[in-house]
Design brief:
Blueprint: H1 2-11, H2 17-34, H3 48-60, H4 65-84, H5 111-119, H6 127-142, H7 146-149, E1 157-158, E2 163-167, E3 173-177, H8 180-194, H9 215-226, H10 237-250, H11 255-262, H12 267-270, H13 272-288
Antiparallel strand pairs: 1-2, 2-3
Length: about 290
């Protein structure tokens, strides 16, 4: 039934391969737990007590609450699917509550370091140098996800329309405007790329071997360049996405507009950035108000 469920997620729900893999890992881990000698049950026969025992085991193994809640969500979706298919009568996850989590504010780079990254760091004028700079500009200038970046094709960029079409989560397309600096960089990069002997690849950004980008390649590049301008602990492509949203909000952008640019399905996911802005407003208030 697990394979049947995963096929349903991939072919009918059209979830991304990464999301389907996450479901698979969670379900197989629970299946291993259920297959222990003292249980010897199939995953479809699990009861509420079994799921609670697994959650306790995960907590004892120092698995953080956020990860445990993701696993609970995976089980909840799986057993709801079994109910719909008339394979079980009672959903064993129905009474299971998610664990409390401390609120984590998005980590982002301040505006000045981001300006220094593009103004002070010297990028070579060859293919690799322009590719690295464009990679960073795309992440910070559009707020796209890592998975979206690596799948952008040259045909997705509309130079004259000053926009890019991105295929996001749940196979939804969205259009993101491009600023002039980014447009100029794309054209410059494409000119250099066109001079290479290998240009058959349709993807916009390529590795040094002219192959499609992969996640670890991008993560290493972002970490390398952010280390040159900031001391924040986390340096990842998603940090640039957070920086994009936070800087827009700090400069007065409408929250609904940021939601559309980020490709969030609901406003609640975008509202996490208001906490950063409120913190900034508090600092301004403390410095400026006579009574503060």
């Amino acid at each position: 039934m697990v394979d049947f469920f995963l096929s349903y997620l991939q072919n009918e729900k059209r979830l991304s391969p990464h999301t389907v893999l996450a479901y698979k890992i969670d379900l197989l881990q629970f299946q291993d737990f259920m297959s222990s000698p003292d249980r010897a049950y199939d995953i479809s026969e699990a009861q509420y007590q079994d799921i609670r025992a697994w959650i306790v085991q995960l907590s004892e193994n120092q698995i953080d609450n956020r990860s445990i809640n993701r696993k609970i969500a995976s089980l909840r979706a799986f057993y709801k699917f079994l109910q719909i298919k008339k394979k079980i009568e009672v959903n064993p996850v129905a009474l299971v509550k998610s664990l409390k989590m401390a609120k984590r504010l998005p980590v982002y780079v301040e505006e000045t370091p981001m300006e220094n990254l593009f103004a002070d760091i010297e990028f070579a004028e060859d293919f690799e140098g322009l590719r690295d700079k464009l990679l960073l500009e795309m992440l910070y200038g559009t707020g796209i996800r890592l998975s979206e970046l690596v799948n952008i094709k040259s045909s997705d960029v509309d130079i004259f329309g000053r926009k890019i079409t991105v295929l996001g989560k749940r196979s939804k397309y969205r259009i993101i405007p491009l600023h002039q600096t980014l447009l100029d960089l794309i054209q410059k990069y494409q000119e250099i790329r066109g001079l290479s002997s290998i240009t058959a690849n349709d993807y916009l950004l390529l590795t040094d071997k002219y192959e499609q980008l992969y996640n670890v390649f991008v993560q290493r590049k972002v970490k390398h360049y952010l280390e040159l301008v900031t001391t924040i602990s986390k340096k990842s492509p998603h940090v640039l996405r957070h920086s994009f949203a936070t800087h827009l909000l700090n400069r007065g952008a409408d929250l609904n507009a940021i939601k559309e640019l980020l490709g969030h399905s609901n406003l609640a996911a975008t509202q996490i950035y208001t906490h950063n802005s409120i913190s900034q407003l508090k600092e301004v208030y403390k410095k400026a108000h006579p009574k503060a």
